[in-house]
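re the bet — no i am not wrong, look at it urself. input seq straight from the record:
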Amino acid sequence: MVDAPTRILERALQQRVTLVLKDSRQLSGKLLGLDEHMNLVLDDTEESTSEMTRHLGRVVLRGSNVVTLHAPEGAAAKPA
């Protein structure tokens, strides 16, 4: 049985995830929350581009801007 994307992300809550956005920026932070539109809240977030890295702190991301999300190895395997 295949889990819905939101169910998989719920298992990654409180863990560090890495996102790639449509504009090629990469964000890495602790996943604090999400909603039915896949909007995400990250804490202790760092933004990386090819030129620089900077600390952003807490951010809210619109789900439609996220291209990929890399969760910790065990996040997808935990039973709901």
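see?? The chain has one domain: 5-70. told u. also The two ends are 12 Å apart (CA to CA). so pay up
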